[in-house]
Amino acid sequence: MIDRVYNFSAGPSMLPLPVLEKAAAELVNYGESGMSVMEMSHRSADYEPIIAEAEALLRKLMNIPDNYKVLFLQGGASTQFAAVPMNLIRRTGKADYVVSGQFSGKAFKEAQKLGYDVVCSATTKDDNFDHVPALTKDCFRPDAAYVHICYNNTIYGTKYPEIPDTGDIPLVADMSSCIISEPVDVSRFGVIYAGAQKNMAPAGVTLVIVREDLLDYAEPNMPTMLEWKTMAENGSMYNTPPCYTIYMAKLVYEWILGLGGLDVMKQMNEKKANLLYGYLDSQDYYIAPVKKNSRSMMNVTFVTGNPDLDKKFASDAAKAGLKNLKGHRSVGGMRASIYNAMPYEGVEKLVAFMKQFAAENPKA
Amino acid sequence: MIDRVYNFSAGPSMLPLPVLEKAAAELVNYGESGMSVMEMSHRSADYEPIIAEAEALLRKLMNIPDNYKVLFLQGGASTQFAAVPMNLIRRTGKADYVVSGQFSGKAFKEAQKLGYDVVCSATTKDDNFDHVPALTKDCFRPDAAYVHICYNNTIYGTKYPEIPDTGDIPLVADMSSCIISEPVDVSRFGVIYAGAQKNMAPAGVTLVIVREDLLDYAEPNMPTMLEWKTMAENGSMYNTPPCYTIYMAKLVYEWILGLGGLDVMKQMNEKKANLLYGYLDSQDYYIAPVKKNSRSMMNVTFVTGNPDLDKKFASDAAKAGLKNLKGHRSVGGMRASIYNAMPYEGVEKLVAFMKQFAAENPKA
Predict the structure, then answer these.
(1) Does B5 contact chain A (CB < 8 Å)?
(2) Among A239, A304, B204, B332, which residue has the least CB neighbours within 10 Å?
């Protein structure tokens, strides 16, 4: 067997090695159950403590207030692009979107496709999304049912430097690529949702954290499986949940709590990001296109300015055990996704490789 | 570690031991990839062969004609209850449902909730679903866009003895609890769908097999993630698929092909079902409520006639390593789900336990 690589994929992405090892050790036979977690009835005394513990650990980790429901769903953030307006827009009949990258654009387009009264209140499209929009309460229609943002833009490598102030309008945030990477004040949000496959678990479970008073606006004729209230009333078990993926999320939550929680996780993530951004700022071979106050701590984008060199970089890096550094197909260049599970040593090796590559591949 | 038990759960349910052992062995580091399958980008050279192979193996296993698309989705069969009418009903504007148990009833109610012109063409509700309706072409509106059935009723333990003849009307079948348990002529169906967690994989992936000419009727303003055509055009990767669960399905397909395919699987399943039904028919302590020509090969229901004895049965059986024999909470009694992965020995042990229980617990 070859060594494990450093995997800079934007998602699905690295999982903590101790989590994988624990999962492997108990895959065939979990505890005293006599079966795999994969085989457990979701309504059994074997499984129910697992999903209950997953929720309890996440509540502890994120300090989720009691008036928020925690849902473990399927379908990815892309399904929530439809579920958000279907569950919320009836509050006032209209909603406002901020388009700061590809996924927030997709969320906006989905709400439009469903026929709703939605507007794009702010965008940085004309700047190729190299920063997030500066937002104030005045950006939004005062009677909007909600304001939708993508908190961290995986593809462009940007993030809001602070939680936007939307006044009394509930803020809905796609946090797929920054969830549980640092502490966040959940009470500032109406809804937080996130696909799991970046910072939380393998692909296949979608987290929705929703304030209870926002559960009462679901469209009467929407697909039942997309109704947050139905899922909340059934403890995420209206139908069979993705049991094993939820179990994996539980192991990840345990791992972070074992390290000391989200304050420690943030320190570790800052240290990695500072190393990489610090190097980028110290030289002029690579260009980091994102404006400094919008930099993502999770996804670091850079280019050489020469697409052929960019291609060679990703290819040579993969040979050196640094995989999936190619930027998203829609933007090119390079992207290093350095989520919770990426060790500091992985970023050290990346910076060392970047230096070596720059020395060995002078620009014409 | 205690021994593995015989798990008669209706789903999630047993997986083949060799599949679990293989998954455990390669969980941390898959092949030459240097990473877990759980960590692989779905658009990587590491992962793409896995999903491609899963589809190829399933096509081989089920002998799926070329004019059918195979989709690996999320959300379970319950999400397809909404997706089916949203994708198909525009063909003619109305659809017919057969209600032969709880899940087919839910599918019908979901289509009604969405506001569509649907009728229940046949039901066995008045007989407490102890058999499936006898269906002929005349049961249905000739201009129905489709006829929906649930091919095997998990809760009641019934199954259609043959594929119903719906003439030119596309037949849509929920096969969640009998998929890949025996050969089936896919060309007789317009759409087959199935949650994976009974015969195919852990919970978290939903199979949809759809005839290509039925992809053109999606509602213009439906959730994109529920559109079969969008998923077909993107090879099930419009967004991140449940990668690891698809990998598990691939291992299960390999296991069945290694045994000899669905003809052999059917023989093995018949042998198990014959043993259990043969015993039930040979005695009068237990009652098997399902009419003989509607008996399911996958889910075998029986009662003692005394709810207290039923409860004791499930409890004593669990202590003997025969778990999850309690009937569905909506019907009571006992249910032995004997899917592909249940060994013959498990059914032998169950029958031996049933004999012992009957001897030791005489009815008053």
Answers:
(1) yes
(2) B332
